[in-house]
Amino acid sequence: MFYITMLICNLLVPVIMLVAGIVMYKKPPKNINGLMGYRTKRSMKNQDTWAFAHKCCGKLWTIIGAVMLVTSVLAQLPFIKSDDDTIGMISAIIETVQIVIIFCSIFFVEKALKNNFDDNGNKK
Question: I want to staple 6 with a disulfide (CB 3.0 to 4.6 A). Which of 27, 57, 74, 91 is the partner?
């Protein structure tokens, strides 16, 4: 039972990233706002940067979410018969890696924004 619970917990982040990525890509928030969406200083410069950031992040999160979904299952699968402490430790490692990947994705979106827009938000 603990194994199943931890597997479900390990799949939450990839599933949320996958769904959020699809939504950001297909139906991003239309207007710049401080409540929903990919909100960074650079992405909120103007409507062009806002739209670009959502397309870029949406595509990235969809890919990452799908890959993490598969790799999270594969990483936990060998431990199906392990004791609860081992399962807990493996789950903590998987979830930590997932969180690190989320933060790394921000770097890539910001880099894409910087490569495509100047500091004032004008397209290069």
Answer: 91
Phi and psi at residue 111, to the nearest 5°: -65, -40
User: Amino acid identity, residue 103?
Assistant: F
Block residue for tokens 């397309």: 55
Is the distance from CB of 118 to CB of 34 less than 8 angstroms? Answer: no
Alpha carbon distance 79, 74 (integer Å) = 10
The rounded distance, in Å, linking the Cα atoms of 55 and 49 is: 10
Q: Which amino acid is at 31?
A: N
- The residues with which 123 forms a beta bridge, in sequence order, are 117
Dihedral sign (CA 92, 93, 98, 99): positive
Its pTM stands at 0.90
pLDDT, tens digit only, all 124 positions of the chain = 999 999 999 999 999 999 999 999 999 999 999 889 999 999 999 999 999 999 999 999 999 999 999 999 999 999 999 999 999 999 999 999 999 999 999 999 999 999 999 999 999 9
